[in-house]
Amino acid sequence: MSSVTLARPTSAIPRHAWKWIPNHWLLLATLLAALGVGAGTGLEPLQAMAGAAVVGLVVFIWMRPALGAYLLIGVTPLIVGVSRGVAVPLLRPNEVLVLLIGFALVTRRLAQLRAGRFPMLRLDRVEVSMLLLAIFSSVVPLTWMTLRQQPITTDDLLYGLVLWKYLGLYVLVRMSVSTEAQIRRCLWIAVAAASVVAVLAILQSLQLFGVPRLLATYFVPFGYDGSMDAFAARGSSTLALPAATADLMVYNLAIVSGLWMQSRRHRPLLACAAGLLVVGALSAGEFSSAIGLVVAVVCIAAVTNSAGLLKIFVPTGLIGSLVLQPVLAARLSGFQSVSGLPTSWTGRLQNLQAYFWPQLLSDWNFLLGVRPSARIPAPEQVSGYVWIESGYTWLLWGGGIPLLASFVFFVVATAKRGWDAARRNSGARSVAGIATFVAVIVTTVLMTFDPHLTYRGSADLMFALIALTTAGLKRPGTSDDQINRDARAKEVRT
């Protein structure tokens, strides 16, 4: 990535930004919003209150854009597991939040543009890799399906939008965060939200205090109605997906490690958080999660050039194993089957062999993919679908060799950005770099098992961390830089 210079903080709206919006239009818009909320109160009180909340959220983000990043990072893990269509058709509540924050930040940025001046779009290698991922997971396979006269379903459209959503989230964090203090605040908010998720996951896995039933009521995985008792005994928490919950714990463990190395004052609190996150990751009851935890610890030691944190991780892991002994024993009992392997492993392989690999390997489908949708309807299954339980198979299925190559490019570019930010910076940006490097490498390893790149909740945090490594930095070559250089050249000539 090219060298960067610190951009002007945008934590509050500059005075000159408002002059591009005539005062009478701003007053008229405010009055209309107030009248609309007032009129709605007598008709639909709940909808009117929701509308007032939306207007208030937009106003607050206009005043303090960093609030958008705080909400995205802090609220998403707590609501991401709620089913689609609860608030808005086809959307999860966290996706509605992304749209609202995006509307506020984009309209704010448009209001600040000077007449006749628009920012130049200059992408670095990380952003190019994200754009390629989004294009090759949506535009290319959908075009290929159209040419083959294959029916495009709603599932295909929704899956095709996933990586665009994460690209948009990355952009929103870059737009809203501009100072070192704001980056640090985002990191602490992420750890706080993950700690809440961890507590619920632990209680869920141990079947305590009615938490499993509570989570099954509001956070429904794949239409889960309480009949999947084995699934309920694993820590899916508010993400409604055990593997995603474990990923979230691992990524935040990297944040805690970075904060630990920079702050002695908060070490007791960080030690408690680290222990909670390790136990929370193990509560997911996933073999892949245990592998991810080990990979994360190795990556943390490598990028920080310190093995001292192992003094915390290893004892905590042992204690967590004792606390979660019932959960781990249930998972390990799978090795006592006739085949010697857990049924989840043999079932995963059978599904790939029966539903996905034959179609993928026929008619050269692996070149440009089969379709964006990563699941096939299967009425005989409890959930009604069979998912692709192999991340690299999913890449070939959803976009073929171009999508697989884009993912490799993404891994190289983002891992390098995280490593450079961790080793060449100090403070909060360095912590974000540590967490980015760990998240990307762990995701790359765990893609062997599942498409962790797009796991709800954990993927949201990973793309936010990537944005935080360069938040507030402006690359040379933007329109302002060019104008300044032209002005200096004109002064020299005169």
Helix and strand topology:
Layout: E1 5-6, H1 15-18, H2 23-43, H3 45-63, H4 66-79, H5 93-112, H6 125-136, H7 139-147, H8 154-176, H9 180-205, H10 211-218, H11 229-232, H12 242-262, H13 267-282, H14 287-304, H15 310-323, H16 325-332, H17 343-360, H18 365-368, E2 375-377, E3 385-387, H19 391-424, H20 428-446, H21 458-468, E4 473-474, H22 479-493
Antiparallel strand pairs: 1-4, 2-3
Key terms for this structure?
494 residues, 68% helix, 22 helices, single chain, mainly alpha, two-stranded antiparallel ribbon, disordered C terminus, disordered N terminus, 2 domains
Structure, described:
This protein has helices at 15-18, 23-43, 45-63, 66-79, 93-112, 125-136, 139-147, 154-176, 180-205, 211-218, 229-232, 242-262, 267-282, 287-304, 310-323, 325-332, 343-360, 365-368, 391-424, 428-446, 458-468, 479-493, and strands at residues 5-6, 375-377, 385-387, 473-474. With 494 residues, it is mostly helical. It folds into two domains: 10-113, no CATH class; 125-348 and 367-474, no CATH class. A two-stranded antiparallel ribbon has the order 1-4. Strands 2-3 form a two-stranded antiparallel ribbon. Strand 2 and strand 3 (385-387) form a beta hairpin. Helix 13 (267-282) packs across helix 15. The longest helix has 34 residues, at 391-424. The protein is globular, with a radius of gyration of 24 Å.
